[in-house]
Amino acid sequence: MRHRLVGELMTTAVVHVRPDTAFKEIVRLLAEHDITSVPVLDDEDRPLGLVSEADLLLNEAAQEDPAGLMLTPRLEPREHARSRATTAEGLMTSPVACARPEWTVVEAARLMQGERLKRLAVVDEAGRLVGVVSRSDLLRVFLRHDRAIREEIRHEVLRRTLDIDPDTLDVRVRDGLVTLTGTVEHPGLAQVVERLCRSVDGVVGVNSLLDHRRTGTAAPHPVR
């Protein structure tokens, strides 16, 4: 069993800017490529920061209302300086949250969730940018075909990992929801089967209707 890796899902053709890239050029790049942010790289392609639409909008938000109907917002010193910046170096948010190509989707998703991030810069061992992975990239694992998910459960989870003959259990997958029926040796094994099936990329949920020989009773444990 293995989770998909960041390197398999990331975007490698990354639009980027340098520290001296002008404000208007950044706006043009965002519009031209229909993106919401760009990484700022040094001369060795190492990420220094990220300029997003929110960073750029500080310029507008800090403006005084010509009609005098709204109060000028009180910004923190750092935000005030960024609202007046004219190049990427002054506009960017730093440091940049980074991932590695060998990270699993689980590792990347946990970092994004924990830090409330929409994307991660992906860097190599030398810290150079090699791609960007976004929330939408990670969600692509849920586009896996039901047949592929079923085959992974049968051959990787049951046969290879648990040494269970996959033909002894019925595995059905519909729209990413796995339903398990059949009989295993004991309740603990049923729980292990459920947990491992839930960890397969593309699985939305697991509905276990497994019996166990020790008591012969059904033990439904829906997992979401």
Describe the structure.
The protein is of the alpha/beta class and 224 residues long. The protein folds into two domains: 6-141, CBS-domain (Roll); 144-212, 2-Layer Sandwich (Histidine-containing Protein, Chain: A). Helix content is 35%, strand content 21%. The longest helix is centred in the last third of the chain and has 16 residues, at 146-161.
Number of domains: 2
Encode the helix/strand succession as letters: HHEEHHHEHEEHHEEHE
* CATH superfamily membership of the largest domain: CBS-domain
Which strand-content bin applies to the residues?
Answer: 15-25%
- Give the overall average pLDDT: 88
Q: Could you tell me the radius of gyration in angstroms?
A: 24 Å
How would you sum up the major sheet? 3 strands, mixed
CATH topology of the largest domain: the name is CBS-domain
**What is the number of helices?**
9
What are the main properties of this structure?
single chain; 224 residues; alpha/beta; CBS-domain; Histidine-containing Protein, Chain: A; 2 domains; three-stranded mixed β-sheet; 21% strand
Describe the secondary structure blueprint for this structure:
Layout: H1 6-9, H2 23-33, E1 37-41, E2 47-52, H3 53-61, H4 77-83, H5 88-91, E3 98-99, H6 105-115, E4 119-123, E5 129-134, H7 135-139, H8 146-161, E6 169-174, E7 177-184, H9 187-198, E8 205-212
Helix pairs in contact: 3-4
